[in-house]
Amino acid sequence: MLEKVRVGVIGVGGMGQGHCKRLAGDIQNAELTAVCDVDPDTLQAVSTQYGVPGFSSHGELLSSGKVDAVVIATPHYFHPPIGIDAFDAGMHVLTEKPMAVTIGAAEKFAAKARESKKVFTIMFQKRFSGAFQTAKKLVEEKAIGELYRVSMIATGFRTQRYYDSGAWRATWLHEGGGVIINQASHELDFFTALVGLPSQVCAKVRTRLHRIEVEDFGHCIMEFPNGAVGYLCISTDEAPGTHRIELCGDSGRILIDGNKILLSRLDTPSLKDFALQSDTVWGSPKAQTEEVAIPDGKANHGHVLQNFVNTILGKEELVIDGAVGLTELELGNAIHLSSHIGKAVELPLDRQQVEDHFAQLRRISKPKASISVARETDPQHLQK
């Protein structure tokens, strides 16, 4: 039985360096024992900083005998092949989001995880937040009855310098998309965890602000299996940003605005019953609105890393099964696919159609004309 988990970080550019810092100092019963990166200068610097061996290929790291688990923080297309190799080598795996670019590749990743019976998780740290846990509980308890309308506005901002900081960023060839595949992964996960997947998506993505070949804006209209409708708007070209989810049900409404949740409950058990049975011409049901208490504390990468380690050691249950990444990715793929073919798509998606679509985009992808490399972690992810 392991007493301490030896962890290797594969990809020590931006996010990987943040994971190294936490593993070297904040995470109990874990030890950073190896790093890997294809850039020799970055690899040497990080290897020297933490006094651990550095490997130029993930295969060398996996066969080194120095790790029990890996954290994958490479560009997105590499998540599934590296993860599958890690499971084959007997490793536990934590992957950065998204778990893949295409839903088909993600399903192969998840299938290998199940086959290996190793611990598999994904960096969806927002699932540890009080807002997520509180909202999820309200929905599961049917606090507002059956959902009939849902919406999410998730907007933020990125500079052109951010997109120019790496050759892989904002390219179809290496990143596989823009705001939908990258920045919005957390929001799409939060949203789909509450409402599930729609049955139909009609979407539009475009590049409105930045000099990039992928999208920085997207929106879509959705229909759900029960007849509910929904709307999403996502971008990296808006400041100040907005993170707002509205869930309307037959007996009330849940409004999630940042880290604040308002719950409105109708005085009548059913909006439909009131509409059909009321003897008034202009009447409408009254509602009582309250702010729902949310547990204190922020959700950060450290929560996911610590739970990953503790699960490997048998100290606690896994909070985020890596396979949850399939759901948000299918919705993201649906948004891309619908926009590019110019019509609504049905879910579940045709896996081969998705693969063909992204293969076509990779073929037309062009090398960047301007790159000013900056391999550093977003400072907000280093906050405790």
What is the topology?
Elements: E1 5-10, H1 14-25, E2 30-36, H2 40-50, E3 54-55, H3 58-62, E4 69-72, H4 79-88, E5 92-95, H5 103-116, E6 120-122, H6 130-140, E7 147-157, H7 160-163, H8 185-195, E8 200-206, E9 217-223, E10 229-235, E11 237-249, E12 252-257, E13 260-266, H9 271-277, E14 287-291, H10 301-312, H11 325-341, E15 345-346, H12 351-364
Parallel strand pairs: 1-2, 1-4, 2-3, 4-5, 5-6, 7-10
Antiparallel strand pairs: 7-11, 8-9, 8-15, 9-10, 11-12, 12-13, 13-14
Q: Key terms for this structure?
A:
single chain, 384 residues, alpha/beta, Rossmann fold, Dihydrodipicolinate Reductase, domain 2, 2 domains, 9-stranded mixed sheet, 6-stranded parallel sheet, 12 helices, 15 strands, 33% helix
